[in-house]
């Protein structure tokens, strides 16, 4: 956890070696600094269609933004609410997109200053890009009521990720790639830390998290590729997040593409757009 981070420090000590970091008050210079008001977002996006997911990435339901906020926030009930993940376009057949909402919010925020401005392979871009304006894979607004969670997983596409906390507190727990032998089974399953199946993951307790922090509005976290992570909303929560691959990880990305990653619809969406000029 750090209070400030330079671009050079981030590149050398976090992005290149793949080390996570939470940066406190990383978002204070936004035109609209966090906390963002969930009721205000509800007024703006009330009738927009959004996708609701389970505690991982299974789509469960389509709702309106307003109905989700009315039904699943503000109460702090005992159950686990569905998780609203509203992604901008990242594949050709995606029906529900957050592009209009992101366009409307584009002036309000920007990527943390320590993230690279350019030299990305994913999304491929010659010049500078910013997740507040440009498409990135898994770029989305994530909303969930208190108690909502994302179960333990590793992000796809051999990519890194950034998450900006804009409303409420969220506990974020991360385990290094080397703990995979304890957290996964031979079928590629990952342990559910809320209901660990001891027969499938007999040694899961041997995995020790490297990072276990509560994000507050204004904090940002860097999630390096290969790190297992899980998140639990301690309050009604809103986050902005996106994935990316920078040129320093060219070899890793090429290996991913060669081993079948190039067939992934998200990868095709981003890489083909470039081919079309
Ligand atoms: O904030 C969360 O719920 C976790 C987000 C995340 O890790 C993801 O969407 O890949
Ligand atoms: Fe993730």
Automatic annotation (TrEMBL):
<dbReference type="GO" id="GO:0043565">
    <property type="term" value="F:sequence-specific DNA binding"/>
</dbReference>
<dbReference type="InterPro" id="IPR050910">
    <property type="entry name" value="JMJD6_ArgDemeth/LysHydrox"/>
</dbReference>
<dbReference type="InterPro" id="IPR003347">
    <property type="entry name" value="JmjC_dom"/>
</dbReference>
<dbReference type="InterPro" id="IPR041667">
    <property type="entry name" value="Cupin_8"/>
</dbReference>
<dbReference type="GO" id="GO:0045905">
    <property type="term" value="P:positive regulation of translational termination"/>
</dbReference>
<protein>
    <submittedName>
        <fullName>Cupin-like domain-containing protein</fullName>
    </submittedName>
</protein>
<dbReference type="Pfam" id="PF13621">
    <property type="entry name" value="Cupin_8"/>
</dbReference>
<feature type="domain" description="JmjC">
    <location>
        <begin position="111"/>
        <end position="261"/>
    </location>
</feature>
<dbReference type="GO" id="GO:0016706">
    <property type="term" value="F:2-oxoglutarate-dependent dioxygenase activity"/>
</dbReference>
<dbReference type="GO" id="GO:0005737">
    <property type="term" value="C:cytoplasm"/>
</dbReference>
């Amino acid at each position: 956890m750090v209070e400030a981070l330079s671009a050079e420090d981030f590149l050398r000590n976090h992005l290149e070696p793949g080390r996570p970091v939470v940066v406190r008050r990383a978002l204070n210079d936004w035109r609209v600094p966090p906390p963002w008001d969930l009721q205000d977002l509800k007024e703006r996006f009330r009738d927009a269609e959004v996708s609701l997911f389970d505690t991982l990435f299974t789509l469960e339901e389509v709702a309106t933004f307003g109905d989700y906020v009315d039904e699943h926030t503000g109460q702090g009930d005992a159950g686990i609410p569905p998780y609203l993940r509203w992604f901008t376009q990242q594949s050709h057949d995606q029906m529900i997109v957050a592009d209009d909402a992101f366009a409307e919010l584009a002036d309000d925020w920007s990527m943390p200053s320590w993230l690279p401005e350019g030299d990305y392979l994913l999304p491929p871009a010659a010049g500078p890009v910013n997740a507040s304006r440009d498409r990135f894979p898994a770029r989305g607004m994530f909303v969930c009521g208190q108690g909502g969670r994302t179960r333990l997983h590793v992000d796809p596409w051999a990519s890194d990720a950034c998450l900006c906390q804009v409303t409420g507190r969220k506990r974020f727990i991360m385990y290094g790639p080397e703990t995979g032998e304890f957290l996964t089974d031979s079928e590629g399953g990952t342990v559910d830390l809320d209901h660990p199946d001891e027969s499938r993951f007999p040694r899961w307790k041997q995995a020790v998290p490297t990072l276990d922090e509560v994000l507050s509005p204004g904090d940002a976290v860097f999630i390096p590729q290969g790190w297992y992570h899980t998140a639990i909303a301690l309050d009604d929560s809103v986050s902005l997040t996106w994935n990316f691959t920078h040129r320093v990880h060219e070899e890793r990305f090429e290996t991913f593409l060669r081993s079948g990653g190039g067939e992934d619809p998200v990868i095709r969406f981003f890489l083909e757009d470039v081919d079309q000029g």
